[in-house]
Design a protein that fits this description.
16 helices, five-stranded parallel sheet, single chain, binds zinc ion, binds adenosine monophosphate, alpha/beta
Amino acid sequence: MTLRLFNTLTGQMDELVPSDGETLRMYACGPTIYDYGHIGNFRTFLQVDVLRRALKLTGTKVRHVMNITDVDDKIIRNSTAAGIPIGEYTARYEKAFFEDLEALRVERPEIISRATEHIPQMVELIQRLAAAGAAYQAEDGSWYFRLAAFPEYGKLSKKDLSGMEDGARVDVDEYEKDSARDFALWKAAKPGETSWDTPIGRGRPGWHIECSTMAMEYLGESFDLHAGGEDLIFPHHENEIAQSESVTHKTFARHWMHVRFLLVDGKKMSKSEGNFYTLRDLLLKGYKASAIRLALISVPYRHQLNFTFDGLIEATSAIERLRTFKQRLTEGSFAAGESPAMQEAAKKAQAEYLSALSNDLNTAEARAPIFDLLRAGNTAIDQGELKAGDRDAILAVLASFDAVFDVIEDRDAEITRHALEYAEQSGRLGDVAPELLAAQGLTDEAVEALVAERTQAKKQRNFARADQIRNELAEKGVVIEDSKDGARWKRK
Ligand code: AMP
Ligand code: ZN
């Protein structure tokens, strides 16, 4: 099955296939590690994760590069304010970033490349640009890209830049569309700022040159796909194209994927609005990492996602239903054989699931047939009609769902424990939801022991003790569910 994906460059749905017939070479802009990532950032990383997992599910290998911006204006400003070298400052946030990705089960890209480890390659690209007449050095020693040297500038963002003033310059990394100007490739050293001594002078790289350099370093001059959040279309990605194609005269990336923004309660997420959340903020409020993952990926990447707490609660209960269903299937005993209706239902769910994913990664539509199958399966189990062969067919569909969604296997308790450790170390225990604090110290083994004791108490018709245990566990955020197969428990 071939994936069809909207391509910002062509403005249409294009088939996404590896140009070498084997491995899809992709580059996705990574984080600037100056602080903890917020859920908007993670939405973009999660949607790229959905893409790579969908590709793998449909039989395509991937070679995925993610850069780490570990030097930029904000990093320099913050590390100076903290009075520590930038390397020490960024190491802390890089570690936090990877912990967060792991909590959200974002697969690690094949290649992770730090900007500060590729300075010579960036310098070389700037030299090539200068040789091609597309870069020049200003009076202060900084180097700029000459927009006039690249007539195709604007082809990604479809901006009309005809009124552009030749030679007007901008030296900040992010700027608005009206100021499309010659942009900085290399910033001359300023006193007190981190800089490198190089053949083009002492200084540090601009943000845009970093991505052109590292993409070509690991993927070649022309590769399959480039991704990022929608805010990067202009100027960042437009500039990457200009820098790369001016020297190679080849299409830099054939396919461009842009993830639309996450909004909170219909508004832009910002610190001043008080609606700004890091992943850790949500974990400390008691939301599960799996629910955050599901909520952030369930709205397809080409739609704005309006984040709400109700959305997280919905995701939590959807995951609980999936986990309970899988548990019923794996722990129940079923007669041998198959029932034609369930076999048909499983086949249909799988086909609809794959077809929705391959249609521009429509995660919302991909979820629906899985829950239809869950309902049909639960009914069949309740009526004693589910056969062992049906169970296997349904488990196979759930496995293919989880190959992309990855929310069924329960690792939430461990992630929440890590978040609590973080709260303790960073003086944030005051932000922790009370139920979470109460649950602390109650290990899985302790819960198992109490649940077993309750089952025993019930057998002996000691209902007072059984209720007492149930209430005690409930206070610590553990709920017990009785079913005909025995008692199951889970953390709230
Ligand atoms: P940054 O660390 O700011 O360079 O951003 C890392 C990634 O997150 C980039 O691909 C951004 O486009 C993306 N991003 C930033 N804010 C949001 C948001 N509110 N929603 C979705 N993606 C975002
Ligand atoms: Zn980039």
